[in-house]
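Moderator note: this is an archived Q&A kept for reference. The question asked for a predicted structure of one protein chain; the sequence and the answer are reproduced below.
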Amino acid sequence: MKDNVKLMKGNEAIAMAAIRYGCDGYFGYPITPQSEVLETLEAEMPWETTGMVVLQAESELASINMVYGGAATGKAVMTSSSSPGVSLMQEGISYLAASELPALIVNVMRGGPGLGTIHPSQSDYFQATKGGGHGDYHLIVLAPSTVQEMADFVALGFDLAFKYRTPSMILADGVVGQMMEKVVLPEQRPRRTEEEIHLQCPWAVTGKHKGRDKRNIVTSLELDSAIMEKNNERFQRTYREIEKNEVRYEARYIDDAEYLIVAFGSIARICMKAIEDARKEGIKVGIIRPITLWPFPYEAIRKAAANVKGILCVELNAGQMIEDVRLAVSDSVPVTHYGRMGGIVPNPQEILDALRRDFIDKPANAQEETK
């Protein structure tokens, strides 16, 4: 097996991809089901090979503020955690967004609310896509469904964060974090030099560098309301650019579909099996898998909805992404939800049964009432 092809967990793939990206620093705190990210980084000891800093902080609060400090200097820095840990980071994430600092945050979701369970969930969708902290901000949110995407989205997340000067999040569920698959790891990138950071990140706090006659100041605080409004208007322009340029999704079996499933992450894989079983029975079902949960693929879903009789949203939660799907279709077609909570993952038959119950076996007048 080649050196860059490995069998590994999704969490391990995150760590290995971070090293190979040329990440400057990781600051995190162990919490199930994502602890292998930190454990793998510690085992690989990248500080001896690439100079990458790996630090287990005393808490999630400390972790995100260390990320804030590193990002302010133009470094490629990241953290990872799981649901309640990310909840603790929300103030720091809001600070990062307001300070226009690029950073990568990984959330391998577990069941909630509260400490909940260590088993997989997708119940952090609202927190990630609607701005879990205070203020009018968004994160770029990437939702992997394979271990390969866990690795690939590290570079993508960092590149988008630096392109738009905003935090990115990889929002995975515990299934993807813990499952093992073959992964093709990226080639090793060198870490950027101080001179490269100076040229590529003119906003960074690097002191009076060559050709710079004053020191930069990075802050999220602005006491003048008029200036703060201008800052917010600038943020919103950035978000509109991201919505215009960075929507990503996967669509399969759409051309002849009479019914549509919308799902993300690991559950989308199970939905694919349900769709294959349905098509064997002559039931024409297609799927759209949002890859960017923000920006959300509203237009793709709207277009697909024009040709189907109903949409089933399948999630590992009580119904969160369904709100965005309903916004996309504007009541033009019935939209229903099937989900499991508490770490229970449905099988393909359950999903097919839900599709039958909500649409196929339902009288036409009853379907109208579900709009």
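Archived answer notes: The chain has two domains: 5-184, 250-369.
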